[in-house]
Amino acid sequence: xxxxxxxxxxxxxLFNQQGYGVxxxxxxxxxxxxxxxxxxxxxxTRRALLDAIGERFATAIEMRLTMRPGxxxxxxYAAMLEAVMAEFRAFRFIYRDQQAYGEGAAPVRENxxxxxxxxxxxxxxxxxxxxxxxxxxxxxxxxxxxAINATIIxxxxxxxxxxxxxxxxxxxxxVRRTLxxxxxxxxxxxxxxxxxxxxxxxxxxxxxxxxx
Length: 212
Prior knowledge:
Layout: H1 3-18, H2 25-32, H3 36-42, H4 46-64, H5 73-90, H6 92-96, H7 106-132, H8 143-164, H9 174-183, H10 192-211
């Protein structure tokens, strides 16, 4: 592993654990086992380091956006939620600490509107598959609205909990609560067995993530 990669890995871990605004370059260099000068050799500014993390974030989102429902829309929707949960966990500070780093990394700032729109489309596609399978009773002309509202809850869930002062650190269950909260929008119109399966799937994702 190159020193540059190790710096990015360590920074991502520390930012997720402690917050972008808390971690100093001295703390980061110490955690990497290198001198601060070596850190600055690889990243001239904190913004450059943030951009490197943003590039990883962009790769993860672009991969998730390629996902589409297949033969089992319920299992496929759960798989999409699992990918979203992995995104939240791997890049927790990006979803949680936006106020601490201003406009954010350039790859995030430049692509965020497109990602958001594509996520609306992706979510609507999965919800439409549930309707087609007879698992979700929802008018087709309102699926777009449902997809937008579900995305808003998923996208800003961690920041919302942070503003409320609720625990959002790893292991606090904030990601699971966010996923379950988005279900409240439409689980009353889901087939009861399907709704239960989604809740079970989310709980299983949380258990697997904590055991990893």
